[in-house]
UniProtKB/TrEMBL annotation, chains A, B:
InterPro entries: DNA_Rcmb_RecR, Rcmb_RecR, Rcmb_RecR_Znf, TOPRIM_dom, TOPRIM_RecR. Keywords: DNA damage, DNA recombination, DNA repair, Metal-binding, Zinc, Zinc-finger. The keyword Acetylation does not apply. GO terms for biological process: DNA recombination; DNA repair. The gene is recR. The keyword Glycoprotein does not apply. This is Recombination protein RecR. SUPFAM superfamilies: Recombination protein RecR. Transmembrane segments: none annotated. Signal peptide: none annotated. PANTHER family: RECOMBINATION PROTEIN RECR.
């Protein structure tokens, strides 16, 4: 015996969500059907609407239901700085950290030739066109500190170097509040090589 | 800064799912919008359909999109046994354990006067009517071994006793494969009081 076909299909559909296995899917389906049908109905409607309407910002490629996102249209940002990130989630993390007041460009991934993901797939033609427009003095390459993120940063650096913009990359080092004992060797040796003068006052 | 209004609404809507907090909701929304729009669209459609069409079986009250569920219509079940459970998930657990071949009755909850959940809310009038039809010799009260489940079992027992059916309750005791050291005191003393003769062969 199992649940009815439609309930089983609901459980199966819920498994598209990341980190949701069969047991969690069952718990979610039961919760929605037994205790929160209104919430479930709302979720179905919003999900459908978001998938239909949310696209990429024409200017920075972040996720938005507008032509151009709020951050790109904001008059209070510094047009001379452009921060390149792999995902909207990375962009949000940088915004929440505070301090950066420039613009963004979202790749939605990184170069991955084995998966057939080339420069156009992550919008690098559009990025280059944006730099060619002029007005940007520094491009901060904030792709992830992973092999793929590094490779993507190097590719972009090579592509943009003819345009004469300053290129930078986020600093590597030990994370704040971490304990050296638990920092991986790669990070630790990077932090050693990048050590900074210290004034003990 | 945050995501666009529609993306934020999607994240908020995903939080109706049990165990999904803000971080998980963000991860789910990003996954659906960035990597699996087809799966998300399917989820939205199936969720809407399930919420509209899945109701209670007219006979046993389990979740089903049919008038009467497959288990109630099956000719291969024993009509003289009726097992009363709190939820469809409990029913499935008993079915998966195997061995029981009778029918079910699903309460969708337990008596909870403080929350305003009385006998009619968990279908006890319908249960009594079903017993009154005759043909059932034993009712197995498989409500949860919790305070509320016990109270509900006692209430049902009192309600059904005039009908002259045998009433039973699942055995209490130490779980198979468990270690006594980790069994709680209440369960252990129940298991002691309910100890069974043992033939050492």
């Amino acid at each position: 015996m199992s649940f009815s076909p439609l309930v089983e299909r609901l459980m199966e559909s819920l498994r598209v969500l990341p980190g949701v296995g069969p047991k969690t899917a069952q718990r979610m389906a039961m919760h929605l059907l037994e205790r929160d049908r209104d919430g479930g109905r709302r979720l179905a409607a919003v999900l459908e609407q978001a998938i239909d309407q949310v696209g990429y910002c024409r200017r920075c490629r972040t996720l938005t239901e507008e032509e151009v996102c709020a951050l790109c249209t904001s008059a209070r940002r510094d047009d001379s700085l452009l921060c390149v990130v792999e995902s909207p989630a990375d962009q949000l993390a940088i915004e929440e950290a505070g301090g950066y007041r420039g613009r963004y460009f979202v790749l939605h991934g990184h170069l991955s030739p084995l998966d057939g993901i080339g420069p156009e797939d992550i919008g690098l033609d559009q990025l280059e066109a944006r730099i060619a427009e002029g007005g940007i003095s520094e491009v901060i390459l904030a792709t992830n500190p992973t092999v793929e993120g590094e490779a993507t940063a190097h590719y972009i650096a090579a592509q943009l170097s003819p345009h004469g913009v300053t290129l930078s990359r986020l600093a590597y080092g030990v994370p704040m509040g971490g304990e050296l004992e638990y920092v991986d060797g790669g990070t630790l040796s990077r932090a050693f090589n990048g050590r900074l003068p210290f004034r003990g006052d």
